[in-house]
Amino acid sequence: MNKFDVIVVGAGPVGSTFARYIANEGFKVVMLERKREVGVPLQCAGLLGKKIKDINILPDEYILNEVYGAYLHSPSDIILKVGRKDPEAYVIDRVGYDKFLVEQAVDAGAELLLNHRVKGLDVKTGEVCVGNNSDKIFQGEVIVGADGHASRVSDEFNPKSKSVMAAQYLLDMKKDVFDIDNVNLNVNSNISPGFLWMIPISKSMARIGLFANKDYNGLNEVLKDFINHDTCYKNASILKKYQGFIPVYNSKKKIVKDRAILLGDAASQVKPTTGGGLIIGFECAKMAANTVSRALQMEDIKILNEYEYEYKKRFKNELKVQIEVQKIFESLTNEDLDKMFLKLKEGNAEALISEYGDMDTQSTLIKEMIKNRLLFSILPKLLTRRIGSLWK
Ligand SMILES: Cc1cc2nc3c(=O)[nH]c(=O)nc-3n(C[C@H](O)[C@H](O)[C@H](O)COP(=O)(O)OP(=O)(O)OC[C@H]3O[C@@H](n4cnc5c(N)ncnc54)[C@H](O)[C@@H]3O)c2cc1C
Questions:
Q1: Among 100, 128, 147, 185, residue to substitute to test ligand 1 (most atoms within 8 Å of Cβ)
Q2: What is the span of the domain harbouring residue 99?
Q3: Fewer Cβ neighbours under 10 Å: the N or C end of the chain?
Q4: pLDDT over 90, % of the chain
Q5: Distance from the CA of 204 to the center of ligand 1, in angstroms?
Q6: What's 193's domain CATH number?
Q7: Is residue 49 part of a domain?
């Protein structure tokens, strides 16, 4: 039997970041990854708030573009322009970055086993089986489920995880047409609470995608319709098509059970409003590594429960606010959305969003909108009260 202090199931960006931290502490760690090659296929828009640089290593060579702001489009194209004079976010080469993070973990001493799909585990004994005939058995003091939206580790102590589908195209315009300083985000009741993004990676190339409660064909229809109806994309060639899943945030999900913990998409650690999971996942990887390290040093597996406590203390309120924002968006018709954009424009919200808006934390902006009564002017009283009550 292969014995380890920690077994990390999944060598995605969050699992490998955790593995690096724990290997740096001198523990014996293995990453079991079902794929033959890390990071492929791409399943990400690759947009990361500038905060990433404080949270994880991001070498400049993986940054394809820096963006300063966004154009937010209503269904009938009322546009809000928000942004700052310094870069707010990076557009990254996600495939390269995933590989880099795994290399960093291996350099720190973690073992990587590709083509190792975990089929079964025992959260009490720490046994993990790999392969069709459970032919390989690993044993860990701790098992970390960083195995993505349909986590096998989570299945062991949670109901089946729920996800929504996302689709994305890589577009080539063959000439310089894009404003590379800004992303474009479109809302429409047809795809709420999801949205459609256009993220420039150069003046001639962009990632266009969306997530919504639709199947792959439904998502493709919306994307094709969008490209065909906007004259700007008349000569666009679709170089690549991608698809992926975004976990639905579940506040009731157990993320610690006996010797197992969940991390990243496996723990539904994603921002409900945007589906972004990297920054929150990386923050949780650090939190989890501290707790796991203490549990191993003290030889007391019960310490693992502190990870769930810390995670909730840090993120529960922010995620609750985002869930409320998401529910409100879901309830609005296209007419409501247009009216809302109009009122926001009239109420000088562009300046307020530019000052207080943050890709990763929306509660600060919502608080400001309540304070200066902007939220009251755009939403029915009942909804405003529901959001306001989150701070009481
Ligand atoms: C279209 C799309 C666009 C996105 N855009 C953004 C964005 O712009 N910004 C952002 O922050 N986030 C974005 N996200 C979300 C982001 O990609 C995820 O939050 C992130 O990948 C989570 O990392 P992870 O390591 O937790 O999981 P994953 O990246 O899913 O990695 C899990 C790993 O586990 C492996 N695995 C799964 N099951 C097993 C098993 N049984 N045994 C062994 N290995 C297994 C998988 O092969 C995979 O390598 C987007 C997602 C999608 C789908």
A1: 147
A2: 2-43+94-161+249-315
A3: C
A4: 73
A5: 27
A6: 3.30.9.10
A7: no
Contact 68, 83 (CB under 8 A): yes
Per-residue pLDDT band at 301 (split at 50, 70, 90): very high
Domain shared by 337 and 375, yes or no: yes
Ligand 1 atom closest to the Cα of residue 14 is 25
Same domain for 67 and 189, yes or no, is: yes
Task: Report which ligand 1 atom has the smallest distance to the Cα of 130.
Answer: 42
Residue 50 lies in a domain: no
- Name the residue of 265, 359, 360 whose CB sits within 8 Å of the most ligand 1 atoms, as the mutation to test its pocket: 265
Taking alpha carbons only, the member of 53, 6, 9, 4 closest to residue 282 is 53
**Residue 127 and residue 32 share a domain:** yes
Residues 174/235, Cβ–Cβ less than 8 Å: yes
pLDDT digits (tens, 9 = 90+) for 341-364: 898 888 777 776 777 677 667 667
Q: What would the pLDDT profile of 53-87 be if each residue is shown by its tens digit?
A: 999 999 999 999 999 999 999 999 999 998 988 99
Region of 284 on the Ramachandran plot (φ > 0 left; ψ -120 to 50 alpha; else beta): alpha
The four Cα atoms 45, 149, 304, 19 give a dihedral, to 10 degrees, of -50
**Does one domain contain both 183 and 72?**
yes
How many Å lie between the centroid of ligand 1 and the Cα of residue 232?
31
